[in-house]
Specification:
single chain, mainly alpha
Length: 101
């Protein structure tokens, strides 16, 4: 049941390790990669959202709204919550980067 969360955590850890390796290479004089993207916040949001989704899959209002009945399935609810949290973290990061400049 927590496999998606473990997968996202592993992706987050691998991404951070790759950033660390690139930083060490940059210190040695090796040219940096062309594409620099920071997905740490998105992956962290995905992990947190999936954990909340697995826990909150049995909300009472899913029964009242037929359109949301698919969210009663724990995996679907975890995916939707994970996506919402990931997008929220991504947008908040953009906001703070713009505000910092």
């Amino acid at each position: 049941m927590f496999y998606p969360s473990v997968l996202c955590f592993c992706l987050w850890q691998a991404f951070n390790r790759a950033k660390e390796i690139n930083w060490h290479l940059e210190q040695k004089g090796v040219s940096p990669p062309k594409n620099k993207v920071s997905l740490t916040g998105v992956l962290f949001g995905q992990v947190i959202g999936m954990n909340f989704g697995f826990y909150w899959h049995h909300f009472f209002f899913y029964e009242k709204f037929r359109m949301l009945r698919f969210l009663d399935i724990p995996v679907m609810n975890a995916f939707v919550f994970g996506l919402i949290f990931a997008l929220w973290v991504m947008e908040s990061k953009k906001f703070f980067v713009r505000r910092k400049k």
